[in-house]
Amino acid sequence: MADPRLKAAFAERRFIVAPGIFDMISAKVADGMGFDCLYVTGFGTVASHLGVADAGIATYSDMVGRVGTMARGCRTPVIADADTGYGGLLNVRHTVVGYEAAGVSGIQLEDQEMPKKCGHTPGRRVIPAEEMALKIRVAAEARKDPNFLIVARTDARTTLGLDEAIRRGRMFEEAGADIIFIESPESEAEMQAIGQAIRKPLLANMVEGGRTPILPAKRLQEIGYAIAIYPAIGFLAAAAALEKAYAHLKATGDSTAIGESYGFRRMTDLMGFPEVWEFESRWARGDKVEGNQ
Fold this sequence. Notes:
Blueprint: H1 4-11, E1 16-21, H2 24-31, E2 38-40, H3 42-50, H4 60-72, E3 78-81, H5 89-102, E4 106-110, H6 129-142, E5 149-154, H7 156-160, H8 162-175, E6 179-182, H9 188-197, E7 202-205, H10 217-222, E8 227-230, H11 233-252, H12 264-270, H13 273-284
Parallel strand pairs: 1-2, 1-8, 2-3, 3-4, 4-5, 5-6, 6-7, 7-8
Helix pairs in contact: 4-5, 5-6, 6-8
């Protein structure tokens, strides 16, 4: 079931900052930070799972299990990237049903041609707007829980221009999307124009090194946005830390002088080892489950 707190946060007009998660370590760390929402990034999840580019290679089967593991492992509501819905209208229906059953609170669908490409990268092509609007209508009909949110993304800005991207955003509003995501505007002025044109909650994609300027959350809210996702922040930080640690180990043959780390004890706590140890200790003493004594 979708978490009703996410829909309530939008209704209350609280600005939502959603960090990207891509595996269970990132999910558990972010889950303890007090965010209103976490965002399962396609780029990061495909990279960590398959070690390949986010270029339409991962399938529904590759993704739904990992998405579900992250959603079920977090107390925080989760929105998950589902690319194009992994095919046509029937695939979209199957994807929405599967992601909702997996425990996410929102699904992101985009209007790219298959195979899709990662946002903020060149060569993205989009399907006709009317075809995407049908996908959104199918998605809205397929969900069982009204708290399950549909994020409609258009990648039209890069190849077809801002006006077409805004037109598509309005179409997707009418088709039943709960949140509109116009990918990769290229200036703050463009973002302001989007904020003035779209009525439903708007999503800003803050990608370090991407095509869109990184604006503070307060400024995003001022110009009309309701949620900002930071899909790359986690895996970029993780890759940098790993590179530094591995380079130090290779150069010195010593892992003890790398500097500050998360700490083995903290990691065992994060992964739930104390509960495991308590369980094993209790049963090693021969304790019985109540009712079976």
